[in-house]
Input
Amino acid sequence: MELEKLRDEIRKTDLDILMLMKKRLDLAKEVGLYKIKNGKEVVDASVEEKVVGRYRAFAEENGMDPDSAEAVCRILIRESVELQRSLR
Output
């Protein structure tokens, strides 16, 4: 495959990633609204650690760096928590 075609595929993949991030934030908002309605705390450390564990396991199973996968996960969690806190 030519370099420009590869770069075009990367651009498309980046857009897919961003769209999935948006979808994740939309879902986090719904979770936040549920938490407000039901008197739940925004942060649940045990749930967050399970999510991080899923990211790390996926990375290990697919030849990726688990530390990098965890870093991405923690960014997504932080953004979700900030969004949920802004709803209160």
